[in-house]
Each structure stands twice: as C-alpha cells, then as structure tokens.
Amino acid sequence: MKEKLLSVEDLTIDTGVQQMILKSRDEGVKTAFDRNSEIGARCTFGELGVCCKRCLAGPCRILPGGKGPQTGVCGATADQIVARNFLEMVAQGMAPHIEHAREVALTLLETAEGKAPYEIKNPEKLINIASRLGLTVDGKEIEEVAKDVALKALESFQQQYGILPWLEMNANQKTLARWKELNIIPANAHQELTVAINRVTMGSDADPVNLLLGVMRLGITDGYAGLHLSTDLQDVLFGTPGLVKSKYRLGVIKEKMVNISVHGHIPMLADKVVEWAEKLEDEAKAVGAEGINVFGICCSANEVLMRKGIPVATNFASQEAPILTGAVEAMAVDIQCVMPSLPTVSNDYHTEVITSLPYSKIPGASHIEFTPAKADEVAQAVVRKGIANFGKRDPEKMQIPPEIVDAYAGFSTEQIVEALKNVNPEDPLKPLVDNIKAGNILGVVALVGCTNPRVKQDWANVEMAKELLKHNVMVVATGCSAHSLGKFGLLSSEGLEYCGDGLKQVLTAVGQANGMEALPSVLHMGSCVDNSRIADLVSALADYIGVEAKDLPVAGSTPEIMNPKALAIGAYFLAHGVDVHVGIMPPIGGSELVTNVLTGSKEEHELTTDGLFGGKVIYEKDPIEAAHVVIERIKQKRAELFGE
Ligand code: XCC
Ligand code: SF4
To answer: Record's InterPro entries (predicted)?
Structure first.
C-alpha cells in the first residue's frame, strides 16, 4: 500500500500538515489525504450525475456517450436524472443552513425568556432588525424585542403564503420583481425543503429546466432563511465582529497548555467553551499546565476568530492533523464537516473527541448533550475533560509543527463601513465606489468554501487569490477558504506584495486612515453563513450605484469546493446574477442541457442562468486559468456598467 501513497508535497502546501501526514504514516494512522488516494478514481456514473436511486425499480444508470440504455426503467433521461440529482444535492446543502438558523433563533427566544445563559450583546442591531421587520420597538424592553424578532424568525419555517421575512427586508426590489416573474419566491424554508424532495421523487417533476429554477429557489431560501438569518441573530447574541488580530497554522497549539479545539459550525457551544476556558484557567494550572488554549477548526473557528480573535489551527481537509500533534486534550464538535474518522484517529492519541448534539454522534467519541439552556454546564464539562486529559499525554508522540502566521479578521460589513468612514465620514462608500470606477479596483471576488482532499490543500485557494490580487481584484473571503489564505499571510498586510499597484494603494490608504500600516490583502468576512455579509456589501454597492448585484463587476469563487452547502451558497449567488467559479465540477456533466443552462453564456445558448439571472457557473480546475476567466467576465461587466 505504502508505495501508492502520494508525496506530501502533492497533498498540501501547508508544511505543518505535511509533517503530520508523514507522522501519521510512521505511526500507522490513516488520514483523509491517504484515504483519498485509496479511494482512487471516482465512479464515472456518480461523477456525471447519471446514477438514479430514486426508487426500488432502480438503481438505473445511463451509459455516457450514447451507448447502451439511455433511459431508466421509468423512462427518465440523463437530463432528467442529472437535474433531479442536482436539485437534491442543493437541497441537502441548504438544510444545514436553515437548521443552523432555526437553532440560533430558538437560542435567541430562550435567551429572551431568560431560559438560556446568553446575553443580547448587540441591542442596536436587534432594534435595527426589528424595525426593518416592521415590528414595534418603542416602549419595549430589549428582551421583548428579542422575543418578537425570534418569533418572526421562526415564521420563516411555517408561513404558508407570501414571502420569507428575511428576504422581504433585504432584497433589491428589481431583483425581487424578476424572481416573482419566474415564480421562485420562497415563503418558508421547511416547505421549500419538503417541496424540493417531493419534486425529485420518482414520477414527479421531470422538466430539467423547471428543476433548475427550483435550484435557484433553494439558493434564495438558503441565502435569506439560512445565511442572513443566522448571521443577524448571531450578531445579536454574540456581537457583531470588529477588527481582531489572531494567528494561523498548527503552531497555535501550545506545548505547555491544555489545548482544546472547537470544530463544527453553530457558535453556541464554541462561544461558551472560550468563555469557560478563561474562567477555569486556575484548574488547568493546578494540573501543571500554563493555562488553557482554545483554537478552532472549520467554521466554528471562524465564529470565535471573528468575534474573539481565537486562533485557527487548520481547515477541513486536515482536521485530523491537530490530533496527530499529540498535544490536543479535547476536541468539542457540533455538526457539519466533522469527519467521522476523528475518534478513530484519536484512538492512538490522548485526544478526547466530544460530540454535543443528539442528532450528530460518532462512535468512539464522548457525548455531552448540548442544549442552549445547559450551555454553561456543557462548556464547563468540555473544558474540565480537557484539563483531566492533560496528564495523559505521551511525550514520545508529541510533535507540534512550529509555523505560525499572523492574520487579521473581523471584517463584518459594519466593520468595513466603519473603516471607510475614517476615510470619508459623510459618504463612506464613495471612496470604494470611486476606486472601482477608476479601475484601481477592477472588481470584487468572494473566495469562499472548503478544502477538499481531492485538491492539493490550500493551493488552489491561495493561487486563485494571488492571481486576482495581482490584477487589482479586491478579494474578500469566508469559510475554510479564508483559512487557507490566513495560513499563507494573505489576511495580513504581508499579502500586499501580491497586489497590483491600484489595489495596494487603496488598501494602504484605508489602512492608514485606520491607524494600520495597511489593510490586509484579503478581508476575512467570517464563516460560511457569513456569506450573507458579502451579499450585504455587494447590495450596498449596488444600491449606491443604483443598479442590481448582477450588474456589478463581482464574482464568487470556490476553488476547493467540498460540501454541498457551498453549492447552495453558489445557487444563492447565481440567483443574484453573480458568477460562481468552481474548481471541482459538481455532478452535472452527464447532461448537456443542465451543463449548458448553468455554465453557458447568454450569447451561446438561449436559456441559461446567465440569460435569466445574469450570472453563470464557471468550471476551471486550474486556479490561474480560473482567475483569468473570472477577470474577463469582470471586465465585461465593467464595460456594460461604466461603458468602458
Ligand atoms: Fe465545511 Fe464551514 Fe466547507 Fe469548511 S467551508 S469545509 S462547508 S467548514 Ni463552509
Ligand atoms: Fe430508475 Fe426511474 Fe426509479 Fe430512477 S426513478 S431508479 S430512473 S426507475
């Protein structure tokens, strides 16, 4: 087996992770990188999306290239099978976001009712949201307002007619009118999900184009009932992020401290673990540690990085690496992107993996059940388990890669506007828009999404960012993609060396107006649900110029996409007419029709998302090539907007 393994330089550009992969091989432990090699070439039918398992008459699969059967038993064609599979995959990507939102809404409700130990950290934002929702705020206690907002949010899950409240309060009127014409306005997130699953069942919706409109509808639902709702209510409960300085890479794990990792997505537990790690510091000292060090992985990391400056060890693909350092006492996980391999890997080390949700358990992990009401108890128990495990380290197995990189984060839309106010207090967006018009900033690209063991880790994300920066494209980032950039200095002014002159000038001028040497080369805007912040920024720019998002020289890019959640976010961008670059092709290649609708430009095909919405999917594996395709589209949009 060993000779088939790839060299670590081909697997990741993170040298610390390279060391940990070598260590895992020495110790006979398997990581995602080596499991990926073992899996080898992927099933062609699966990759093309032409395998249908919708009923027990199947599974049916269509042989590519016109040879062999071209329909399933029921007569379903490749176009129909691919479109149904894709809709289902996007629904699967949306469900986690709307569950996330629902749990945050319930936490706000319980907090307002005094049943959960959280505070309303940002009452101004709460009042602003309440007013925009049309709720009365005058003469009400803040808890009452919180309760009203939480109940209104929960309506997103039951209202039978009309329009999603978070969509109504945020959307651009022209965009909304277009969506109305296409009949893709969602009323309630749960209904959208059940309707989506209903329409893809055996013998239901068989019109590929109608199914793809369904994908857009899910994208809209994901963005407003999932992302926006989550971010808004999390800001209310945990505070709106502002500029923070932090650190990246495995070197954030501290040899002499009790190391506890938070991992997953929903910030309720992660935030409390950070709080209790501070409060229980003395107990750690009593067992001989210098203190307690909390660090993050994946989007839990983003939540506590953005608000509290907590350092980040790594992102999705290398989430097993911290365990391999032999210096992590506990890993508290909630849900999504948590590899079921973690307890298996930790069998050989002293790390205790702790699951926390009743619907997300892993054999071999400890389980402490989290509810918002029990948040303090659970977080204390997690921290105490970490402290208790400190003495169980095996010094022979300890190896912490020393590299550590400085990074800035916390760029919420509010923080960005604040920074711009220090340049132009009366009209903060003016300098940004002026620089876009003048071409000092060619456009804006949101670098989002994951890392994926199928792509050399961090490489595509980093190369894409550098190439864009070089051509004066402003880059904002979220998710694991932001972590990739953080690990390689792009979230600090160190990254300015990669920027073209125009962009460099702008970042330096705005930075200096804010008492910094310069802004970081890439602005970290948060977790994956915080793609709503990017949408807010884009909407603000569009409103300022008096156009729609689709008219702006902006795009999204997810070079190392892994989770279908990123497809749902992609559909959200697309519905707004924003191009989406993917570095890995979603399973649609088995249908020319579906591929054309999503990736064709309006000049090439009559019916495309480009024609209907103004944005398309760009598939390109090579990040440098991809950057250039995106730049060309940005130039096209500039030409139409500014008559260049
Ligand atoms: Fe998961 Fe959010 Fe992707 Fe990272 S970026 S692998 S979805 S943790 Ni969201
Ligand atoms: Fe086969 Fe049709 Fe059943 Fe799919 S729905 S498995 S194509 S019979």
So the answer is: CO_DH_a-bundle, CODH, HCP/CODH, Prismane-like_a/b-sand, Prismane-like_sf
